[in-house]
Amino acid sequence: MATNVDNSPAVTSGSWVQPAARPPYLRRRLDAAPFRIGVIGTLAIAVLGPVGLIVYQSFLDGPFFSPRSQLSLDAYRYILSDPSFYEALGTTVLFAFGMVAVAVPLGSILAFLLTRTDIKAKKLLEILVLMPMFISSIVLAFGYTVAIGPSGFVSIFFRETIGFVPWNLYSLGGLIAIAGLSHVPHVYLYVSSAMRNLPSDLEEAARSTGAGIWRVSRDVTLPMVLPALVFAASLNILLGFETFGIPLVLGDPNGIMVLTTYIYKLTTLFGVPTYQLMAVVAMVLVLITLPLVYFQRRILRHSRRYAALGGKGGRTTSLKLGRGGQVLALSLIGLWLFVAVVLPIGGITLRAFVDAWGQGVNLMDHLTLANFDNLMSVPSLFRGILNTVLLSVVGGAIAVLIYLLVGLAGHRNTGLSNTVLDYIVLLPRALPGLVIGLAFFWVFLFVPLLTPLRPTLVSLFVAYVVVGLSYGLRLLQGTLIQVGPELEEAARTTGATLGRTWRDIVIPIVRPGLVGAWALIMIIFLREYATGVYLMSSGTEVIGSLMVSLLQTGAMDTIAALAFISILLTAGGLTLALRLGAKVHD
Amino acid sequence: MRMTIMRALAAGLLTAAASFGSAWAGGIPAGYPSSYADLVKAAKAEGAVSIYTSTDSAQAKALLEAFSAKYPGIKIEYNDLGTNGTYNRVISEAAAGQVGADVVWSSAMDLQMALATDNYIDLYVSPEAKALPAWASYKDMLYAATVEPIGMIYNTKALPEASVPKTRADLIKFLNDNRDTLRGKVATFDPEKSGSGFLHHTNDARATSTFWDLAKAFGAAGGRTYSSSGSMKETVVSGENVLAFNIIGSYALDWVKQSPNLGVAFGTDYTPAFSRVLAITKGAPHPNAAKLFIDFALSRDGQNALASNGLPSVRTDTDKGFNLATLNERVGGNLKPIALDEDLLEYMKPQVRVEFFKKWKASLAGS
């Protein structure tokens, strides 16, 4: 939830893009088997260990480590008869589908405008539209409170000019709108890569028979990218089920609760920990999301047939928007960017530099740098910033190497181990980061050889690698798949082993892609907040989780300053990513 | 940032000077057993003390710096885990035989009492215990380190000081009389989401006869609940809420210094107060350093450091910030600290808890 910009299973690997380009299967040789089995086996342990622990915990009547705990279905009975659970479940379903209703149409329109038309400033927009994806949703939520909450500066402006505020940020509708707008890039990414590769001859044919641009997009372009749309929609439903930051902050005042915040509430409800109840809710989430993921895989298989319609070699020419069209399109995108990026970032930036705000407060009187004082003088906060940078930069690089190993193990692998790999990758995706973090806390606490690692950043790193697995692997598989199979075959026919082929052919070719992947993983690790909540300890603080834990006492001054730093770091990471030529577009 | 460093240096020097000046007979504070020098030596040999706590590090800064200045060789590992995080981690680590905490310092008085009665806490008779009131310690296991009034904050632009309710009965009447103008603009803790809020509300339910009337008046005014004092402050400062009650008043006393449109009030008839409770874990990796830390935190110097950071002292002989006596004056003379006794466990029983939540929700829903 928190981490993954993108929840698609690893198998998707951008294959919208290369229709019908399935390589002839390489002879399956045994020389790669030990490597594959070794890597996939290790990964299986790293993922199935904590997940298994959660499954086991859900069938107990107390903490799994308590000698008094027994096998029991009581936890299921409690949850399934708790009205709050059903309320949270209902809200979550509404939330997820509402998010789709906002994000999918907008994302598709954006994708159409940026790939099929001659819209101005295309290069710049392609980067800007992805911005919301890189900001941690907890930062977004704080930012919106200051901007458009009941006493936000935009709300006050509206109240003073038109007499009332035409929205309510803390309503379910408000939550859905915010979440939907911030998930537009996820839709855009998928739909745009599908659209980019459509040959334009069909559209041109329609244009030449006199169809208008909207008619063309509706009757020609839309049906051809339908699988991508369905896929993006199911991805967003998945993300909707796992959103934590936005409902945690914005749902609080009116008591709007979704499943993830319901889990969080279970930690306080009984005073003592009720891990079994949390585990049951996590199981419910898995049972809902796994079929979704399976469904995604199926659409993907069909999509190859769809995409093949176009054939290859079709030249893409842009549809002309005309002057009015340009203005309309650009203002639409501008408005969306204003709401999804400028408002929250503006809000949090403002909050970081004032000590009071709201109705009747002159912000100029309250400008201060004092919020940042603590960051430098309180050791844990300062360490949190250092650790976050370390974990993203160094940890991100190591993570890319790990994902590369896993990617190679799955590369041109058609055996059973690849199917196993696919599902292992999906599992952590189906669980909230909060719960995964808790499971890893237990693993590092109770597995004898691992205990010395718990108070070090290694424990967080391992959890981050698992939480970021599906996104990271997708990035790397997308890169690996671009290596022409004939190059590998050439090496193999001249007698090179598979290992040698990878070392001398594949890895050198994908090296630029690796650098780009590193930069993106870095941003993902930067914005993560849920995984560390239970895992971090003195010396291993990270910014995101510090914000969640500070929220318990509500030290908003410090939270705002941390959020501001987090945005600065993300901006730095993104600049670096673009410099290094990361292909943000799949 | 240079200012910050200068300030930190100055503060460090001041505290160092203060501790140098305090009565030390042969390196042992007055009133301490003569064997105390051995304890200090053993603690220095351990070289570290690990604290699990619910207190933000920014608020504990003065105490930690003063401790480090007095015992330079002992490194403080400070883990701000929240109340539930603290409790969960202590019991998980005990089960794994991997105890990491030396000192547990939490504002969840009920959870601390549960740790003590469930055998997670070591016995230690602090030489400072004599200076504490009787309600502030429990069976040589738990020691209250602060006394923090539970009060109300309000937006001074929306609510002039003269109309601020002064007593519990006033507050109920005020909510009922202004039901429509206050609609959706009154806040308090959500007891389901916040351990502190749960303690404040249940303590009221135990100690007063009018708590449920208050809950109903709050519900009838369409009040909203939050999971932290800080987020309530944010909404009251910005005018989103007019007032918030049963919040942590010690924070509020600090906040009003910065925010001109924020006011703080305490019930003159009855002001409950909670404490942040110190304890040493059984099997602590640095037991001697833990003892040293607890003694220091309860000592006059330690209490002064806490009070200077806005956490009022539980003693009466300190001169920085508020102490038990001056605080009582500040809140109108009826400060009623929550006692460290086994009554705290009443609401730990799942049945009693569920009943409380039911009644709370029903009151808010207006039945």
TrEMBL record, chain A:
Protein family: Belongs to the binding-protein-dependent transport system permease family.
Principal localisation: membrane
Ranges in coiled-coil conformation: none
PANTHER family in the cross-refs: INNER MEMBRANE ABC TRANSPORTER PERMEASE PROTEIN YDCV (PTHR43357:SF4)
Signal listed as a keyword: no
Intracellular or extracellular location(s): Cell inner membrane; Cell membrane
Membrane topology according to the record: Multi-pass membrane protein
UniProt protein name: Iron(III) transport system permease protein
Keyword terms: Cell inner membrane, Cell membrane, Membrane, Transmembrane, Transmembrane helix, Transport
Family annotation (Pfam families): BPD_transp_1
TrEMBL record, chain B:
Domain of life (superkingdom): Bacteria
InterPro entries referenced in this protein's UniProt entry, alphabetically: SBP
Position of the signal peptide: 1-25
Pfam families: SBP_bac_1
Keyword entries, A-Z: Periplasm, Signal
PANTHER family: PHOSPHOGLYCERATE TRANSPORT REGULATORY PROTEIN PGTC, THIAMINE-BINDING PERIPLASMIC PROTEIN-RELATED
Protein name: Iron(III) transport system substrate-binding protein
